[in-house]
What we know:
Elements: H1 2-26, H2 28-37, H3 42-62, H4 72-97, H5 103-114, H6 130-145, H7 147-151, H8 163-169, H9 183-208, H10 212-223, H11 242-254, H12 258-267, H13 271-275, H14 277-300, H15 306-321, H16 336-345, H17 361-379, E1 387-389, E2 392-394, H18 396-422, H19 427-438, H20 459-473, H21 477-480, H22 485-489
Amino acid sequence: xxxxxxxxxxxxxxxxxxxxxxxxxxxxxxxxxxxxxxxxxxxxxxxxxxxxxxxxxxxxxxxxxxxxxxxxxxxxxxxxxxxxxxxxxxxxxxxxxxxxxxxxxxxxxxxxxxxxxxxxxxxxxxxxxxxxxxxxxxxxxxxxxxxxxxxxxxxxxxxxxxxxxxxxxxxxxxxxxxxxxxxxxxxxxxxxxxxxxxxxxxxxxxxxxxxxxxxxxxxxxxxxxxxxxxxxxxxxxxxxxxxxxxxxxxxxxxxxxxxxxxxxxxxxxxxxxxxxxxxxxxxxxxxxxxxxxxxxxxxxxxxxxxxxxxxxxxxxxxxxxxxxxxxxxxxxxxxxxxxxxxxxxxxxxxxxxxxxxxxxxxxxxxxxxxxxxxxxxxxxxxxxxxxxxxxxxxxxxxxxxxxxxxxxxxxxxxxxxxxxxxxxxxxxxxxxxxxxxxxxxxxxxxxxxxxxxxxxxxxxxxxxxxxxxxxxxxxxxxxxxxxxxxxxxx
Length: 490
C-alpha cells in the first residue's frame, strides 16, 4: 500500500512545485508595497518569498522522474494538497511580521483568507502594516476565483492536463458543462471576468468615499465574497452609507455563477441572467431575505427609525447570506430569530460556480423540485416524470449526488457542533461556528459573533476550524475521499 501511495503522491508533488513557485511570486506584490510605504515588513515578505520559492523548486526538481499525465483521481489529491500547502505558505508572512502571533493562528488566518471564509483571529487591524492587511485581503482575492482554476491555464505548458483539477475545484453538482472547448480557455475567461469586476468594484469604492488603499483591499474581499477588512470596525469604520450599498451590489454580482457573467458578456444581454433558474432564485433570495428582516425589525421595533431598519437590515442580511461576513453593526444583538434566519440563508443562497460557499442554490432547487415530484408520485403512483430544472432534465445520478452531499453536510455540521461543545464552547457558538466555517461565512454567533473574533479559541479548535473551512471550500467529497481506503488502493 505504501508503494501505491508513493505512485499516486509523487507525480502530484511534481505539479505542486510550480504552483508553489507561482504562489511565491504573488508575495512580491506586498513586498514592493511594504518597501514603498516603509512599513517594516519587507524582510518578512522577502524571507517568505525565498522559503516558498525554494520549497516549490525542490518539490519540482526532486520528482522529475515521477512526472506523468494525471488521471481524474489525482485531481482530488492535487486540489487538497494545493490548498493545504498554499495556506501554509500564505501563513509565513503573517507569522514573521506580526509580533506575538503563533504559527497555528497564522495558519488559521491564511486558511481563512484562501478559502474566502475571512474569519479573522487578529486584533488591532487598524494598527497592522499596510502590506500585511493587503496580503490578508489579497489571499482572499486569489482564493475567490480558485487558485487552481487560475493555474489550470498554465498546467498544459507543464504537460499536465487540467480538466481533472477544474472538475475537482469547481462547485455544484453539475460540473460537466464548459463555456469554451478547451478547459484552459474556460479558466482564462473566468479570470478575465473576475479582474473586470474587481476593477469596477475598486473604482466604485473609491468614489463612494474610500481611499485607494482601502478601496483595493476591500475590492479583494468583496468580489471574492470573503469579508476581510483592514479595520476592526469593518464597514462601520466609514460614516458614509454609500460604501455599504456599493458592497451590496457587488456581493450580489459575486454570488452569481461566473458562467452567467461570461454568457451575458458574450451575448451582450442582461436577460441571460434571468433565463437561468439558479440566478433568478439567487436574486429573489437576495431581495426577499432583507425584506423579511426589515419587516421583522419594524414589527419588533428593533430600530428607532425606518431608515435605520432598512439600511442595517438589508446590508447585513446580504453580507451574511452571500457568505461574505462583512458587517456594519453588531447583528449579534438582533433578535435570535433574525440571526438564525440569515445564518441558515448562508447555507444555500449563492450560486454554484460563484465565489460563495455553502450548499449552493442549485442543490436547494434540486431538493425542492424533487420533493414536489415525490408528492406527485404519491398521488399518482404510475406517473413517469423526470426532474426538470429550467429546460434541462436532471439525471438520477445528479439527484443521488445532491442527496448524498446534503446528508454528508448535515452529518459533518452535527459532528462538528458536538466537537465544539466537547471542547468547551456554548451551544449557540458551537452550532453557528460549524456552519460559519463549512459555509465559508466567517463570523458566527454567540462568542464568535461579529463583535468579536476567533482569537480566544484553543489551538485544537483553531486547527479544527481550518479543517472545516478547507472541506467546505472544496465541497466535502473532494477532501474526504482521500480518507477512504479505496482511493489509495487504486
